[in-house]
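Example record

Each entry pairs one chain with its bound ligand, MUC.
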Amino acid sequence: MTVSHPIERIEARILDIPTIRPHKLSFGAISRQSPVIVQLWLANGATGFGEAATIGGPSWNEESPESIKHAIDNYLAPALIGQDGSAFGSALARMDAFCKGNHFAKSAVEIALIDAYSRTLGLPAYQLLGGKRIKSLPLAWTLASGDVNKDLEEAQLRLEQKRHRIFKMKIGARSPEQDVAHVSQIARGLQGKATLTVDVNQAWDGSTARRFLPQMIDAGVTLIEQPVAKWNVEALKTLSATLGDRASIMADETVCSPQDAMMLARGQASQVFSLKVAKHGGLLRTREVAAVAEAADIAWYGGTMLETSVGSAASAHVFSTLGNKHHGCELFGPQLLVDDIVTELMPIVDFELQLPDGPGIGVEIDLAKLERFDRARAGLTAS
Ligand code: MUC
Ligand code: MG
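Structure tokens for the complex follow.
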């Protein structure tokens, strides 16, 4: 069999980019992001970029920047060199055969492959993913400074700038009583001006969630993300059944594979899935999870792992191909970082992120910035 577009080379590097302020989540605070940027070359000279970012090393799930780079350098790249770059499904199957799990690592390679091949065809990546159905998405911002006044100042500024009017609050690090007080103060300050979400990042058990979520809803929260541990599907079911008509329960860490999606759909355990390209293992697999959501009358939300514009644009491409039962997106990673690695950011107009056009993933890399943030050049170590 002739290989029409052989994959010639794949390289991964870890960047270290400070955030504009500390970002506090239930499991800790971060002050820099360490995305892994993959560059892939086809034999015809076309090149593409991909990204996988984690939050706080391996704190969000099992993968870390270092494990992602290790899996790519030692297993995924050797599995793909010489293979047909136009056969995305076969490339994914080969990566699975050589390396179990490691979805973030696989997603970074798959994005780079789809970027390179769609540039070869001179097409935007979304054309290879089903075509564009959505031109823009409401863009959320996360209030996670840990300080009510700073959070309110941040929210007011973003409202004035017409950038965001959906605000997500990261809770679960303090006591539930303190969280309710914090969220209520913010809700009072933003009353009538914004939509409010909380993300507990698995921090509560079922009974804490049953006791405190109604108070969050009374304060004005309408979307509740991953209130309990990833495995606690029974609690998600109870919360969806009891609170589901006052606020939507959104699965994040629980919904990674299409099989997770099926299990949640069968159990009616959430009304919304947070879609994230990294945890699903790439753009094609994001569409598989989205297909289960659509079939089960579950809405989607365009989630983030706080990527640079590379990962954010790739996510935007696949989100742009999905149906319109959604709660917007949170691809605000580029704005949380002090700087980015592309020449131009995706524009935000009237509170909506404009989903990119242009060949490949639609953003162009600034090579000088790639070098500037490269951990290997700066000599930094793990986050
Ligand atoms: C998460 O769990 O959703 C997304 C936005 C944010 O602030 O943190 C992430 C992680
Ligand atoms: Mg989340």
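Residues 7-123+366-378 form a domain with the Enolase-like; domain 1 fold (CATH 3.30.390.10).
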